[in-house]
Amino acid sequence: MGLRQEVRSKKFYYCRFSPHVKTNLRGKQCVHSLSLILALFLRLTKNKDMIYIASLFFVTATLTPNQAMEIGVKVWQNECAGTLEGLTCWNEGEEFASLGIGHFIWYPPHKNGPYIATFPELVRFLAEKGVNIPRWLLEAHGCPWKNREQFRRALQIHSKQMMEIRRLLQNTIELQAQFLHLRLERALPSLLAAVPDEKKNKIQTLYERVCAHPNGHYALLDYVNFKGYGTSEGERYNGWGWGLYQVLDNMVDDLQTDSVQAFVDSAKKILEQRISNAPSIRNEQRYLNGWYHRLDSYLAK
Q1: In what order do the strands lie in the sheet with 104-106?
Q2: Staple partner for 103: which of 75, 86, 98, 129, CB 3.0–4.6 Å?
Q3: Structural domain includes residue 229
Q4: 8 A C-beta contact, residue 278 and residue 237
Q5: Strand, coil or helix: what is 125?
Q6: Are 57 and 197 in the same domain?
Q7: What distance in Å separates the CA atoms of residue 235 and residue 116, rounded to the nearest whole number?
């Protein structure tokens, strides 16, 4: 049994440090110093398995069902306009399907792109939670539709596979939000393991400042789903990234400024920079107003 498998087989109690999510530490209070100790550990170790184990301790107990559904509906509205049709999409000009409330990416077999494929990970997560997954989907080695035309045809004829995916996604809104929450909780250790040493303290401080804001958990969760961690070298245009790391690194470190407002202002500048560096054939300028609208939802009272 590999080290990671051994870790998964043990029972751990996790906690996080936002006041908006309950923990499952029985009778124990989560202390902020634990995150600082783990952050220091991540700075000192180069061993990937050790980084993986440390990252587990940033993972919280799941959101309550009400919290998960509330966040899930917000993300669903952002990505899919809250429609059932929006749960199964293949956008024009893209080489992958976008599925679920988070428009999780699924590439056809042997296709590689600049973005991380998150739909297969979602399927594994749902299976681990006991959801009944169609066997063909568990065994799939990529999206069964090779291009947008095939995908749209499957939608038009209501193919069995397409309808099974849509029912699965329609019935797991809360669990998809839990999956997004899990990805967020792994964000900070992933960032600290990847960024230069001289930036680790700044990144952790700003992350925690945003997270402590009443809207901060939703803002961070949605942005990680929206544009990723920012640590993958594959997610770059002309060497410039656009993920959570870049947004935090670009933020103004000012205690007098509303942290989520500063996060939104920084994200807008980073996305403008992305558009300026994007291949002209992608015409990403068309997305900017929608991106602004999404970011502004983080400021809602």
Answers
A1: 88-89, 97-99, 104-106
A2: 98
A3: yes
A4: yes
A5: helix
A6: yes
A7: 8
Last residue of a domain, one of 146, 176, 206: 176
Instruction: Answer yes or no: do 124 and 194 share one domain.
Output: no
Q: The domain containing residue 37 runs over which residues?
A: 3-61+186-299
Q: What is the pTM of this model?
A: 0.72
**Residue 272: C-alpha distances to residues 223, 265, 299 (Å):** 15, 11, 19
Structure-derived torsion over alpha carbons of residues 202, 205, 206, 208, reported in degrees to the nearest 10: 150
Regarding whether 169 and 98 lie in a shared domain, the answer is yes
Return all residues near 184 (Cβ < 8 A) that are at least 6 apart: 217, 220, 221, 224
Q: Is residue 181 part of a domain?
A: no
The token pair that represents 208 in the structure block: 């925690």
| Dist CA 91 CA 99 (whole Å) | 11
Length of the chain as a residue count? 301
Q: Total domain count for the chain?
A: 2
Rounded Cα gap, residues 195 and 161, in angstroms: 41
Based on the fold, state whether residues 56 and 69 are members of the same structural domain.
Answer: no
Q: What is the DSSP-derived secondary structure letter of residue 64?
A: P
Is position 166 within any domain?
Answer: yes
